[in-house]
UniProtKB/TrEMBL annotation:
DUF5067 domain location: 189-308
Organism in which the protein naturally occurs: Enterococcus caccae ATCC BAA-1240
Keywords of this entry: Signal
InterPro entries for this protein: DUF5067, Immunoprotect_excell_Ig-like
Protein name as annotated: DUF5067 domain-containing protein
Length: 324
C-alpha cells in the first residue's frame, strides 16, 4: 500500500512539474513572415501579439508582442543574412551598446555567444528605460540560413525579472527559420530600397556627413516630423558639434523651407532623444557619432535637401521620400 501511495505521489509530482514547465511557454507557435523568410517560435505564456508598430529608421518590426501584466515587450526584425557579417560582431556590438546606452564600464553589459537551434547567435543584457520605465533589455542576434534576426525583449525591472529572464531564454530557444521564398525576398528588397532611398553622403576637408535612415515620428504639439539619422565624422583638428548640419543643409517641401522640429517633453522615443542629444556633443578629430535631425512636415510630399555651395561646392540637391 505504501508503495502504491509513493507511486501516486510521484505521479502527482510529475504532473505538477509537467504543468509548471508547459506554463512557461505558450502552446501555439507564432508564425512570422519577413522579407521572404519564414520563422516560428513560442512566446512566453500569457504574452499577446500586439498591433502597435515599432520602427527603427526604416527597420520595421515584423512581429510585436507584450505581457500586459508586467509591461514587458518583444520586437522582432530581420535583414538578409549577408548584410551582417559574423566576424568581430560580438565585441563591436558590445562597444556600440556601451556608447548608445551610456555605460561607463563595458563589463556592465552582459554578453554571451550562444546557439539557437544550431544557428550562431549572441545575447546581450543591459538596463535601460522604455516608455519612461526601467527595464532590462535582452537583445538576441541570430544568423539563420537566410536571415539575420534581432529579438529585442524589454523585461520589466521588477521582483520577477530574474525568473522572466529564464523564460525569455526558453522562448528564444524555440526560434528557427522554417522557409524561404526567393521571389518574395527580391520584392521586399526592392520595396525597402524605394522606401529608404539612396544613402546621402557629403564630405569636405573638415567634415563628413552620411545619412543612415529616415523615420516619421510625432513631435511636439502632435506635429508630424521627419527624422533623418546620419553619421557625423570630424576630419579637422578642432572639435566640432554635429549640429552644424543645420548650417550646411536646407530642407524644403514644395519650395518651402522646413523648420527644425522638436519632440514633446513626455515622448517615449528614448533612443531618438539620445540621438538628438548627440547633435550638441563635441566630436574630436577622427571620431564619428550617430545623431539625428528633425524637420516639421507640411504634408507627405517628398523633401528636397540642398547643401551649402560654399562648404560643399558642386553638391547637387537630393530628394528624400517620407516613409509611411
Amino acid at each position: 500500500m505504501k508503495k502504491f501511495f509513493h507511486v501516486i505521489c510521484l505521479l502527482g509530482l510529475s504532473i505538477f512539474l509537467l504543468i509548471g514547465c508547459t506554463q512557461k511557454l505558450a502552446k501555439n507557435k507564432q508564425q512570422i513572415e519577413d522579407k521572404g523568410i519564414s520563422y516560428e517560435f513560442q512566446l512566453p505564456a500569457g504574452w499577446e501579439t500586439s498591433k502597435a508598430g515599432y520602427n527603427e529608421y526604416g527597420l520595421q518590426a515584423a512581429f510585436n508582442a507584450e505581457d500586459k501584466k508586467s509591461n514587458s515587450y518583444v520586437f522582432i526584425s530581420s535583414v538578409p543574412v549577408k548584410d551582417v557579417p559574423q566576424k568581430d560582431f560580438g565585441k563591436q556590438t558590445r562597444e556600440k551598446l556601451k556608447k548608445r546606452y551610456h555605460y561607463k564600464d563595458i563589463e556592465g553589459i552582459y554578453m554571451k555567444k550562444i546557439t539557437v537551434n544550431k544557428a550562431p547567435a549572441y545575447k546581450y543584457t543591459l538596463n535601460t528605460t522604455y516608455k519612461e520605465k526601467s527595464v532590462w533589455a535582452h537583445l538576441y542576434y541570430i544568423w539563420t540560413k537566410h536571415g539575420f534576426v534581432q529579438l529585442t525583449y524589454y523585461s520589466a525591472d521588477d521582483n520577477s525579472y530574474k525568473k522572466r529572464s529564464k523564460i525569455i531564454d526558453e522562448s528564444v530557444a524555440t526560434f528557427k527559420e522554417t522557409g524561404f521564398d526567393e521571389g518574395a525576398a527580391e520584392v521586399a528588397k526592392n520595396e525597402q530600397r524605394e522606401e529608404e532611398g539612396d544613402v546621402i553622403s557629403i564630405i569636405n576637408h573638415d567634415i563628413k556627413m552620411e545619412t543612415t535612415g529616415v523615420r516619421q515620428v510625432t513631435g511636439e504639439n502632435q506635429k508630424k516630423l521627419l527624422a533623418i539619422r546620419y553619421t557625423f565624422t570630424n576630419l579637422m583638428d578642432t572639435p566640432i558639434q554635429p549640429v552644424v548640419w543645420n548650417d550646411y543643409v536646407t530642407a524644403k517641401q514644395n519650395g518651402n523651407i522646413l523648420s527644425i522640429g522638436k519632440l514633446s517633453a513626455d515622448s517615449n522615443l528614448l533612443d531618438l532623444k539620445e540621438l538628438i542629444n548627440n547633435q550638441s556633443k563635441e566630436v574630436k578629430r577622427g571620431e564619428a557619432i550617430e545623431t539625428t535631425v528633425l524637420y516639421e512636415l507640411k504634408d507627405m510630399s517628398n523633401i528636397e535637401l540642398s547643401f551649402s555651395q560654399d562648404a560643399f561646392p558642386g553638391e547637387k540637391a537630393v530628394e528624400v521620400v517620407i516613409p509611411q
